[in-house]
Amino acid sequence: MKKFLVSLAALVVLGLSSSAKADTLTYVPTPSDLNDLDHHSVYTWRVDNVNLAGQTITGARITFTNIANWDNNANKLYIHLLDTAKQSGVRSFIDDPNSNNTQVSMIDDFVDTRYHNQSSWLVANGTADTHLHTYVNLTTTPSTLVYNFSASELTALFAYISNGNNFALCFDPDCHFFNDGIKFEIFTSANTVPEPATMALLGTGLAGLYARRRRQQKKARREASA
């Protein structure tokens, strides 16, 4: 009898686990190409109303479709994940006031503080910041790039979302990077630990089955001894 109940409980728990469905949250900025990542600007893209209730993040990635360097120099594209940004959606800040100058300084303006005290700067001082990657090897030939988050970056992403149901991706292009669109995906799975109410219901059901089995066994013994 004990083996029967243990087996039944295991089957029920497995059933609960198998019902946990994986999901993919997909986000695309507006404009989708972030103005072709113009070298005169830096960009924040704040994503709001992210609901991870009952979900665990299992992966995340940024996809750049047909991205290409302005020229053959070792230009840089800095990418950051932030807890939040000042404004929702896509915002930009001009970090090269001389718009006729294409020879910009290779400075990561989310690290360098030269603009951080300006009221129009995109991020509040003290905002949590995780540097994701710096691309320095892009050529003039368009290619699709995929950046997958590491385990520590997934932990940061989950913490940032939990802090206010939003997060921000930030881009500082030095120099210009043409592209056909940027996409961010978060992969999740449902938490598989049964809730207390579910466990209570499971216990009640098993107790009922046990009592019924005991009654059947007693009846069978009485009939056998008659």
Structure report:
- The chain has about 230 residues and is an alpha+beta fold.
- The chain folds into two domains: about 40 residues, no CATH class; about 170 residues, Jelly Rolls, CATH 2.60.120.
- It contains four helices and ten strands, in the order H-E-H-E-E-E-E-E-E-H-E-E-E-H.
- The strands form two sheets. Strands 1, 3, 7, 9 and 10 form a five-stranded antiparallel sheet that branches. A five-stranded antiparallel sheet has the order 5-2-8-4-6.
- Helix 1 runs antiparallel to helix 4.
- It is elongated.
- It starts with a helix and ends with a helix.
- The relative contact order is 0.29.
- About 5% of the residues have low confidence.
* SSE pattern: HEHEEEEEEHEEEH
Rg for CA atoms: 27 Å
CATH class of the largest domain: Mainly Beta
What gap, in angstroms, lies between the N and C termini? 24 Å
List segments where confidence is low: pLDDT < 50 over at least 5 consecutive residues: 4-19
In total, the number of strands is: 10
- So how many helices? 4
What's the rounded overall pLDDT mean? 85
| Whole-number tally of structural domains | 2
Oligomer description: single chain
Helix content: 25-40%
Structural class: alpha+beta
In percent terms, what proportion of residues is strand? 25-35%
Per the principal axes of the C-alpha atoms, what is the gross shape? elongated
- CATH architectural type of the largest domain: Sandwich
CATH topology of the largest domain: Jelly Rolls
Largest sheet: 5 strands, antiparallel
